[in-house]
Amino acid sequence: EKAYNLRREAKSAEQSLRSATERKKEVANVETDEWIDSLLGLTTSAVVATSEGTEGNNNTQDNIKNNHIPASSTLALRMQANNLLSPSKLMRICERLHERETAMMVGPEGFLSKDNDKIGGGFVLGDYDNNSMERKKEETDRISGLLDRILQAVQIIDEERGQSMNELGPKLRMRITDLRQSRDALIRRKIDNLVNNSSANIDKKEMELDNLVRSSFDGDNNDDESNNEERKKQERIMKRLIETPTWLPPSIAPFAATSPVEVSVAHWKMIKSDILTDSKFICTSWDATEVAAIYRGRISTRSMSNGNESDKDTVSAVFDDLLNRLQNHPEISTKIQLFIVDDFEWRPPIDMGMSYGAREDRPPPVIVALAKEAVPEQESERSLTNKSLSIFSTLTTLFTTFAYAVSSFALNPSFFNAIVKDNDTTSFSLCLPVFFGVLAISALHEVMHIVAAKKYGVKLGNPVPLPSLQVGSFGSITPLRSFPSSRSALFDIAISGPGVAMLASLAMIVLGLRLTMTAQSFTYFPVVPAALMKSSFLIGSIASIVFPKVMLAPLSQPIPIHGLFLVGLAGLYSSSVNLLPIGRLDGGRASMAAYGRRSASLISLLSLLLLAFYSFNGVSGIIIFWGALVVLTQQRLADTPVRNEVTEISGLRVAIYNTLLVLSLLTLAPFPGGVSSM
Could you report the average pLDDT of every consecutive run of 10 residues in the chain (678 residues)? Predict the structure, then answer.
């Protein structure tokens, strides 16, 4: 009963606050309408100046009758005469006119009212007895013209006063442009929804007729029913994607669209009333669809127990508290999951010279809720085609890895004579250490992913090996089958594989060079061109320190090298390309965890453009082949979201990623005087 009373009081307080806000807005609108009336010359109390210098209200009725819009010079005089040069007043006038312009375009009927007693009305630009679409278009054009005239009048005053108004004209124009762009986007979405709904109704009628005719001739068909179910599912997903609200982040939207269940409004309300109430997240507004909901607000830091906590620790603690509340809720704990992300609708504020207090420099956090069943694709849901492609890719990788091992012995005279002249296939056994070594490096890469994922309770899909014509294997595609809890968890899972594999590969390269220097016989060693040492800046630098003599050899001279060096070289290249900050690659996941989704998207785009540039210029064979695989396997796309995308990772993790990224770039860059990679 106590909880019920508290909830009722909270709802009553919320309703009172909403009513007070609406009344305050209505009062402000009435005041703003009076200012607009004074500019149009429709009031008796305000001073009505004209460009000819006269004052009075003699032309008021003519203005109403002829829908007269004063000249910009007249508006400038009236602004000065009626004390409307305040930036805040001019901004309110422009926003109010834009509000009326928008309502006239998208409202069910004309928003402007000629009834001066009606709240929200107050000024007239035309005759509203005729409410046709032509009349609406005409009135919209008049309001738009008045807005443009006001902007011109402000520009005139700016020119007369120099810098005294801080160049208010361009700022007002920029604000109106932003508002109109947002409105145009809203109108386009409404039109698209109408078109799509109409098309869906037509398709539904045609489908019903087609099913009726088919059943009349063929009777019921279970296969057709299953096909219809699949088609309805695809149509439902497509409809959800088309009607995706602007507040739903693109990283979460696909999972909401493919959700197999829908959530009732009552359950969404429980998040607001039972989970967010009395929490450190103060909810100010919320929206919902049948598959997703968003709760906007702010984090309360005054009520935290430890005043020395950083912002990221505060957000993490608040979100953990919300998750605990949800987990202990008796009704929705098994139906809803929560995410905390940056507000996708947030835009950097435009400084109009009127801001007071601290200025926001990053998006505020919002809570997004989805159905519990909205999860990444599971292994059991993969199509037969995808499974077949995975098997084909695995077999191809085994072949290219063995081909890499054999090619490393191709310049060995003993091996060449045994295979070509003596037909001694047993000599292929010399290639097995390199073959299994490359597979072992790839296996180490994947094992580290699995270990890190188990630590954070994240499900991983079956790895799909990627073949390479240059180094045998490019590693594997390892999809996420559940949502990581935080950016730190995503970072550790992503960086553990290529990070450990790269360190192990560097150790093998150094050890392989050392063993080559101390070897007594090179009969069973792989033989490669000296140019291989200069195909990478990092490998060439290591060889210059460990084995400087080999760097003096001509590029085409064959040199014997220990097999560990070639295993390390393959692992180093594989780790380097996977660390590139692109989409779903390990480097893309680490970049998202380190810099946030917005910055990571821009970094990924720039990396793809550079990859395309180097591919078209033929700078590196590895980059060309890797770029093709990235495009074909859709690894360029954004990856699975994490539950807490707001809390940043530690500075140590960022430094680790930056170091590994530099090492990967040094690996892919050719050594001076050498040739391009492989």
Answer: 76 82 84 83 54 42 52 84 83 82 60 38 42 63 80 79 61 77 69 56 50 48 60 76 81 86 89 88 86 87 51 80 91 92 76 44 86 84 83 93 92 84 81 94 95 94 88 88 93 95 95 90 87 88 89 85 94 92 89 90 84 65 63 66 91 94 89 58
DSSP H/E element including 299: strand 292-299
Answer positive or negative: Cα dihedral of 535, 538, 541, 546: negative
Amino acid making up residue 194: L
Global pTM exceeds 0.90: no
Measured CA distances, 17 to 10, 11, 274, 284 (Å): 10, 10, 20, 10
Q: Which secondary structure element, helix H or strand E, spans residue 270, and what is its range?
A: helix 265-270
Instruction: Enter the tokens of residue 6.
Output: 């508290």
Return the sign of the alpha-carbon dihedral for residues 567, 569, 572, 578.
negative
Continuous H helices in 163-242: 168-218, 222-242
CA distance 366 to 364: 7
Q: Name the phi and psi angles at 645, rounded to 5.
A: -95, 0
480 is written with which tokens?
């996420």
Which 3 state secondary structure label does DSSP give 558? strand
Please give the backbone phi and psi of residue 367, each rounded to the nearest 5 degrees, phi first: -100, 125
